[in-house]
Each structure stands twice: as C-alpha cells, then as structure tokens.
Specification:
481 residues, alpha/beta, Rossmann fold, Helicase, Ruva Protein, domain 3, 4 domains, five-stranded antiparallel β-sheet, five-stranded parallel β-sheet, 20 helices, elongated, PAS domain-containing protein
Amino acid sequence: MDVLKRKELKRMVSAGYDSEFYKVMVEYLGEEIFVADGSGKILFVNPASVKMIGLPVDQIVGRTAEQLEQEGYFSVSSTMEVIRQKRTVNLLQKLKDGRTVLATSVPIFDKEQDEIVMIISTSKDVDAVNELLHTVEKQAVEIEKTKAEIHNLRESMFEAEGFISGDPIMNELKDTLIRVAPLDVSVLIQGETGVGKELVAKSLHRFGSRINGPYIKINCATIPEPLIESELFGYDKGAFTGASTSGKKGKVEMAHMGTLFLDEIGELPLQLQVKLLDFIQDGTFTRVGGTQRLSVNTRVIAATNRDLKKMSEEGNFRKDLYYRLNVIPITVPPLRDRSGDIGVLAKYFLSRCNSRYRCYKKLEGGHLPILTQYSWPGNVRELENVIERLFVMTEENVIGKDAIINVLRENSQVSGSFTYTSSASLVPAESLRPLKEAKWELEKQLVSSAYQQYRSTYKVAEVLCVDQSTVVKLLHKHKCV
C-alpha cells in the first residue's frame, strides 16, 4: 500500500472515531471491534477488544495482527486469514486466557476492488453463543411441552363429551370446532345417520361462550306434525283443546341464553320453516294461540342427514332458511372414511361396557383388519351396537375374531355383503421391492401419520416408543414439517 493511501486510511479511521456518535457506539457495543489496514497493521480497537486481548491500547495499535498471533494472544488471526484468502473469514480463536471466541473478519477493498485497504473484525464469546443457543433450545422444549399440554387438555375436554377419535381427519374437525365454538353464529352440521352429529353440537355448546346456559335439543323427525309448532314455540292458555291452563314454554324459550339444537331439521314442515326463519332473523316469536311477541337470545345449531341444498332447489326446503342456518357448515365424515377411529372407538365402547358391568373383556389380537374391512353403513352407532352385542354374547374374557366376523356378517345381511379375507394384509408379489426402500417408506408413513394426529413430538415419541430427539430427526429426514 503506498504512503498516500495509508495516510488517507488513517484519516478515515481517525475521523470516524472522533465522531461522538461512532465513539459511543463502538465503545458500548458488547462485541469486540478490531480494525487493521491491508497489511495487518492494527489501526483501532474498542474497549471490549482491549479487554479480550489483555494489553493496553498503546501496546496494540501500531502493531500487526501477525505479531499478536505469534505472541499467543490468540491462536490464529482472522485478519491475516483475510489477507491470505481475500474474502470474509469466520473462525474460532483460542485466547491467551483460555476462552474461545468466534471471530469474523470482513475485507474492504479499494475502488478498483484489487487491493484490501481495511479489515474490520468482530468476535463473540463462544460460551455466550452456546448459552444463548441453550436458552433458545430450552425455550423451544418448553413451547413444545406447552403445546403438548394444551393438546392433552383439549383431548380430555372432547373425551369428557364422549367425542373419541384417532383419525387425522377428525383432528381437523376438532380444530374447526375449537375455532367456531366461541363465534355466536348459526351452524349446520351435516352427515350420515350415526356419525356423531349431536356430539359435535354438544361440543360447540361446551366450548362456546354459552356453556353456562341451557342446551336444548328437539328432534324434528320424532314429533308429530300437528304438535311440533307448540313443542318448538310453546303455547298460551286455551290455545287448543287439552292445552294447559297456564300455557307452556317451548324449546325455543327454554333455550334462552343457551343453545338450541334442531336435530333432523330437514324434516321440519314447510309452513313452520317460515316461523323459524323469522325467529332466527330477529330473535322474536309468538306462542301458539298468543299475540305477544317474546324475545329470546339463543344460538341455533341444526343437523341433518339430508342434502338441504338439493331439497331447497327442489322446493322441499326454504332457500332463505337454508342460507340462514348454513352460516358455518360442518360435515362429519362417515366412519368408513376415517378408519383411524374404528379401533379407538371399539376399545372405548368395550372399556365402557367393562366399567358398567365390572368385567375385564378384551378384543383378540388382529381384530382391527376385520373391523376396518366392514363398511359400517350405520357408522359409529352401529359400531357401538356391535361391540355391546359381542360383549354380551361372549362368555370368555377374550372376544375372538370369529365372533366379530359372524356379527358383521349378520349385520351385512341387512346392509349389504361382507366378506373378510385375511390375505388383505399380505403384500402382493407384484408389490415386492427392496427391503431398504420398504423400511424407508414405512418409517416415513409412521412418523408422518403420528405427527399429523398428535401434533406433538413428545406424544409421537411416546406412541412410537422412541426418544423425542429421534422423532425430530425423522420428521426432518422425511421432510414432514
């Protein structure tokens, strides 16, 4: 470097350090700052750097980084490495006092980008960095634990309502319920008979803001048409022959400040749909035989196993009522589409029977492939009935596979054919492949499915009987997160 360039560089550094703003900045910055020229001669060090090296400023400035390296103040000079490599360098330096620091040195080139005119170095105590990393990792573990605790608390709340599931698709449904429950809007629950629509309605009430209010259910399909209006809206005294002299509250009035669950809403007579629509729109109604409009504050949840949209298009259900009810649509999938629930529910129903009758019966190993091959046209309700029948009809403590097959075959005589084949679990010859590839695929499926279901690496580790760190590695290995 020629004399003019060296003088200009020295002037730049001095001018910068004389500025009060930069002086305060570099002196109070926790990291060490070490500035040298293109030959390695030290031009400036801040107080943190002086403390790190362990020499007075006047014994550092003016000397070269190479000299300090040779005298053992640090094991290797990042400044000299920049001069050799002509690029930014990161390396670990062992200091004279035994500490290890992470040093970063950045070259500043002249306008022609040919010659290094300045090297700015900073360093950070590795122990401090490691301590920070440890703190971050510890916080991550705590967050994961908290997430697991929240998940377990949520599951226990659902289980308290009898909402038992183990299939990922139902976990998505639970997420929806948690989001929708606090919203005071109408919900339309759709699904086949026996899928658990009422459990969904109860969960919405249980997790919503009206939990302390009444939960009132009316099944629109079980009440004779002439009586359903008075059951729903109540009646005043003398409304009809045989009416109570004091009148009677209807289900709507009873649901004040709570939840009104209208089951089988598709069976509600057309002429009554108008009155229900008026109530949902403004919250007021009149009893049968009455003239006074009553005001009720309730949340309306409806359920049906029919296609209301199609019914409304065919004129069998009012379109305006359909849209009023369908603010938040929730569809509960049939049991055949959530095979992950079958085994969990079977064990739950059997456990409930054992508790009720103080028995210790269990299902024979290998029962799950049999249960999952059946189509379950009656859904969860049919599964519950099958387990109860097996419990009653089996004298031994182990309910055998043959008994399960026989009961399902009896059911299929009504609902359709059922043929169980044990060969379903075998691998077809045309599907054979290298063992390593098959193990890789199985490992990926297991960890991916478990994480989708539990959303907690700790819970997955518990289920798969491995360490939590192993689960994290597998998730990253198979790119599942």
